[in-house]
Amino acid sequence: MRSPEGMVTSGNARTRIVIVVEDDRPIGELLAGVINDEDGYRAILVTRPTEALRTCAQVQPDLLVLDVGLPGMSGLELYDRLHQDERLRRVPVIFETAISREYGPEFRKRGIRKVLQKPFDLNELIADIKELAPPIAA
User: What is the pTM of this model?
Assistant: First the structure.
C-alpha cells in the first residue's frame, strides 16, 4: 500500500524505497543488501538505465543511488532524464564513481550534494542515505 508521502506501507511499518542503479551486479547486490539490512529501508536493484526509467515510472522512490558509469546512458544522463519527471525532481540522489574529480563540475551544475568515491565505505553510504531520506518514525 502506498501512503500520500509516497512511502510503501505494510501494516504499521513504513519503508523508504531506495532504487540502486549499478551495472556491476556484485556491487549492486552488496549495496542493496546493506540498505535492506537497515530497518525502514527497502532497496530495489536495477542494472540498466532503461530498467531504472521503467522502475521509477512504477515505484515512487525516496532516494536514488546511481553509478556514473552505466552502459548505454551515463548516470548523469539518467539523472537528467529522471528529473524531467515532476514526480522525481525532488528525489535526492547519491552518485557513486571511481573518478569523482572528473565529474565534479557536472555534479555541481546539477546541485548534487552526495558523491561516494569507489571503493567506498558502506557506513558512509548508510549515513548519507539516512541524512537524505531519514527513517520514518513508527
Answer: 0.87
